[in-house]
UniProtKB/TrEMBL annotation:
It holds the Pfam family Anthrone_oxy. The chain crosses the membrane at residues 55-75, 82-103, 140-158. This is Membrane protein. Keywords: Membrane, Transmembrane, Transmembrane helix. It comes from the Bacteria. It comes from Phytohabitans aurantiacus. InterPro entries: Anthrone_oxy.
Amino acid sequence: MFRGVTLVLATLTVGIMAGIFQVYAYSIMPGLGRTDDRTFVGAFQQVDKAILNPLFLLTFMGAFVFTALAMALSFGKDGRSALPWLIVATLLYLLVLIVTFAVNVPMNDALRAAGAPDTISDLAAVRERFDEAKWVRWNLVRAIACTGAFGALIWSLVQHGRSTG
């Protein structure tokens, strides 16, 4: 039963994260991309500040913890049919974490460090150094990898149901 609960929690949290990355890819960044430099810098800084909250962090890190735990609990005889899909899901979400901490977070931090838009003398230069296109490309990698992990987790739930049903 613990394995099943862990698998459901992994699927829920990874699914939520896939949705978050997709919302950035399909609406937030295209919308911000159409704004002037002051609006872009200020809005991005505020969105980045707002997302750093306990619920988001619990979901973001919980997705990896629950997925890895579901994988670890599936090494036994009963979990073997779901195991390959759990390995795939864990590796794909690990890619999400690596991209996030190696690319997107440092870019977010650099934009935050530029200061409030009202104190920046050259907003266009700050926006250019941020490199929206790079941030968007790597976020798309996160969205695709996380959606793949979500799909693998859904299929592992199917396999888990077949092996316990």
